[in-house]
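Re: weekly structure request thread

Next one in the queue (200 aa):
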Amino acid sequence: MLRIGVLASHTGTNFEAIADACQSGDLNASLQLLICNNSSAAVMEKARRCSVPALHMSSTTHPEKLDAAICNTLVEHRVELVVLAGYMKKLGPAVLETYQERIINVHPSLLPKHGGAGYYGARVHQAVIDAGESETGATVHLVNNEYDRGEILLQEKIVVESSDTADSLAERLRPIEHQMLINAIRLFTERSLEKGASHE
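Done, posted below.
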């Protein structure tokens, strides 16, 4: 089984989707831990209900060397794939180097459009509407040291309706984002199986 570590900041709908897919057997993977930079975030309780260790790690808990602490925690839990599920902080060099090409993120636009620093949540959807885009969508990409600039793994498009608002786009894209994340994780589970087979 592929061992997954999730980093999240808020409600945790993506975390729930991954947890459900692991529990149902839809993914040949297991959730090893959740790291959250917000101790009161709803995702913390969701992790506990799923019996997934939930750790609050932020500049409050680690005023210095937070990056190293996160990296060491992921390694200690033998995490093989890091999933950013609404994580609102930029990763540091230790995590990025240790998990190079093994960190994925879902972004609610068709990257490279409407990505980068400051583009998250409702701001992305409002930017799509303000730009008069005829279509938008979601992107799963590898994470590197630049916001939303890593290699694109998957994209899916939807039509922007004249009646759409930032909220309605977010609502329509949410289930698509969940499924895309699961599909992207499945790519890594298949790679893991191939690697295991090559070692036999």
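The mean pLDDT is 93. The domain at 2-198 is CATH 3.40.50.170 (Rossmann fold).
Next request, please.
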